[in-house]
Amino acid sequence: MSSRDTILATLRANRPDPAAHPLPPVAILGDMDKGRDRFENSLQILGGQILMPQEGDTLATAIARRFPDAKVICSAVPDFEGTIRIEEIESPQQAAATDVLVVRSPFGIAEMGSIYLSEAQLNNLNSAAHLTQHIVVILSEENLTANMHTAYLERPEFHTANYGVLMSGPSATADIQGVLIRGAQGVRSLSIWWE
Questions:
Q1: For residue 35, how many other CB atoms are within 10 A of its CB?
Q2: What three-state secondary structure class fits 183?
């Protein structure tokens, strides 16, 4: 047995009994506004965008207008075709060649303008949400929650997913001379399409 296996076996053997030591209740704190306006304002502060439909727009035409040079559009939702299905992507290297990923989020957090994704939405290809150039997230206004406290209490995904990520706009950094750069690593843009 390797030292790693020994350490992990020791930790597992000495794990506290959850029945004897239940987790404390989660406090409900903060502003309880779970409205679309709050979500959109928070999202835009962090560099995210709303993919606004024009008259007669479908998701496909809105994506074509927003990303006219996109060649590889990966769909992780059954109701949008794209040029490739997420089930056809076999490696992170293939995901990195994706121009636009279209995915449906089970919920959004209004306070932070964040969306949640797990392996269920990403077909177990979790790297797709970070390696693609642009991500378009389909979100329902009915699936907004006010803040992290309400998300943890109301949303079962926190308790059932093996992997979960909250995304709030594109990646950003201001490490060098305090200059904000969006899309420095990870997705270059995150856009919301309301359903």
A1: 12
A2: coil
**DSSP symbol at 40:** H
Closest to 175 measured CA to CA, from 187, 185, 188, 165 = 185
CB 59 within 8 A of CB 193: yes
Residue 157: pLDDT above 80?
A: yes
Instruction: Give the CA distances from residue 43 to residues 1, 62, 85, 148, in Å, rounded to whole numbers and listed in that order.
Output: 48, 19, 27, 15
- Tell which residue, 9, 98, 8, has the closest CA to residue 86: 98
* 3-state helix/strand/coil string of 63-112: HHHHCCCCCCEEECCCCCCCCEEHHHCCCHHHHHCCCEEEEECCCEECCC
Q: Report pLDDT digits (tens) over 38-65.
A: 999 999 999 999 999 999 999 999 999 9
Average pLDDT over residues 70-95: 94
CB-side neighbour CA atoms (13 Å) of 141: 9
User: How many residues are recorded in the chain?
Assistant: 195
At 45, give phi and psi (nearest 5°).
-60, -35
Residues 158 and 108: their CA atoms lie apart, in Å, by 13
**Contact of 153 with 138, CB cutoff 8 Å:** no
Q: Compute the C-alpha angle 61/63/69, nearest 5°.
A: 110
